[in-house]
Specification:
Elements (H helix, E strand, L loop, with lengths): L8 E5 L3 H13 L3 E5 L5 H7 L4 E5 L7 H11 L4 E6 L4 H9 L4 E4 L4 H14 L6 H19 L4 H8 L3 H8 L7 H11 L11
Parallel strand pairs: 1-2, 1-3, 3-4, 4-5
Helix pairs in contact: 2-3
């Protein structure tokens, strides 16, 4: 039973079509699903129709500025990650953005590496895995938990079977640590499955 995950979804809201296209190409190359909006008035309706993990929001737009849009987003969803993007950074808008729980405030033009680092950090802080290594840890942890529960074992009982600590097993299941091959071998033996099955390849 391989664990498949839908691509992480990002909404870009910026009246500058060239910047939108550039960011979309960059992010889709990194494996994200991206939608672009150049008209800020329809953002809340879009968020109600579709699930997004992150919104990248331009600050200075005609009809509605980014702070107004962010304020409306917060009425709809208090937890959604929002990164503010602006070519006109200043202290007042930075403070206003942070008060509305924007996760970052970036200036244009942006450095590609810095931009990617911000996206990766935001996704990680929200508990969303984006790197292959992190994804593998999650797959292993969820697979171990699945097998353990299928056998009706508690973490304490699995610890007794494997001679590993409850704390370590818990961290492995929650993908908070990477397990050694030796530990995975003991876990597979304790769960009575082949080692390769822990990698999601049944």
């Amino acid at each position: 039973m391989g664990i498949e995950r839908a691509p992480l979804r990002i909404l870009i809201v910026d009246d500058d079509r060239a910047i939108c296209d550039y960011m979309q190409t960059l992010l889709e190359r990194d494996g994200y699903t991206v939608k672009v909006m150049t008209e800020p008035t329809g953002v809340t309706a879009e968020l109600k129709r579709h699930e997004y993990h992150l919104v990248i929001l331009d600050l200075m737009m005609p009809k509605r500025d980014g702070i107004e849009v962010l304020r409306d987003i917060r009425k709809h969803d208090k937890d959604l990650a929002v990164v503010i993007f602006t070519g006109y950074p200043n202290l007042d808008t930075a403070v206003a953005s942070m008060k509305l729980d924007a996760v970052d405030y970036l200036k244009k033009p942006f450095n590609v590496d810095e931009f990617r680092d911000v996206i990766t950090r935001v996704m990680r802080d929200k508990g969303l895995s984006v790197t292959p290594e992190e994804e593998l840890h999650k797959v292993i942890g969820e697979t171990i938990r699945h097998h353990r529960k299928a056998l009706g074992l508690t973490l304490k009982q699995l610890a007794r079977r494997t001679a590993l600590s409850v704390s370590l097993l818990s961290q492995i299941e929650r993908a908070e640590t990477s397990a050694s091959i030796s530990s995975l071998y003991k876990i597979s033996a304790g769960l009575q499955v082949k080692l390769r099955e822990l990698f999601g390849t049944f």
